Amino acid sequence: MSTLKQLYEEFVERARAVGTEVHWARGKEEARQLVGQVIKELKATKVALAENPFLEALGLKEVVRECGAELTSGNPREQAAQADLGISSFTLAVAETGTIVQDATDISARLVSMLPPCHLALVPAGGLVATLREAIAFWARRGEIPGYLAFVSGPSRTADIERVLTIGVHGPARVVVIFVEEGDGEL
Fold it and tell me: For the chain, what percent of residues have pLDDT higher than 90?
């Protein structure tokens, strides 16, 4: 059985291999700082935020405002498409593939992770699992697998045209994952 540190190291190796940036936050305040750094680095003026209890507990609306960016509101499809950055939470991260997993049944969460050119995903450290099998078992134990599960492995990529690899055509060109340590989830 792997330790949390081993799972994280494997996730980082696999995720970076497909172009994902990965960070570890030791608690809410460090997570807020990392989110602020990404917003400032991008010089983001508009941020689309998928609302849910995990992100609300981190107080990210305040972080966005403190960075001088505008939180989008209104029609999620239009607003997410106009945002420089989309922020959402993912429930799980799979070490063996560097993949993050989200119940994307709510269309807002889906659009925020797919339409802006940069996607920032926050994942509770306790959601780090070793294998895809464990990820599916997690949802099965809940009694029902969601109608729309999103598995994201790095930025959008395609080679549809002339077999030339292109990043960011069908989704974000940049994906940043921040694991948020809660309680005794120390590395």
Answer: 64
Three-state SS for 57-72 is HHCHHHHHHHCCCEEC
Supply the pLDDT for residue 160.
Answer: 59
Quick: pLDDT tens for 27-37.
Answer: 999 999 999 99
Tokens of 74: 């209104």
Query: What is 4-180's CATH topology?
Result: Rossmann fold (3.40.50)
Indicate the range of 20-34, 79-93, 146-160 predicted with least confidence.
Answer: 146-160
3-state helix, strand, coil in the chain (%, to 5): 35, 25, 35
Q: Which helix (H) or strand (E) holds 124?
A: strand 118-124
User: Can you give the length of the chain in residues?
Assistant: 187
DSSP 8-class letter at 157: E
User: Tell me: the pLDDT tens digits for 41-50?
Assistant: 999 999 999 9
| CA distance linking residue 85 with residue 161, whole number of Å | 26
Query: Cα–Cα distance between 109 and 103 in angstroms, integer?
Result: 8
Q: Are 149 and 114 in contact (CB under 8 A)?
A: no
SS3 128: strand
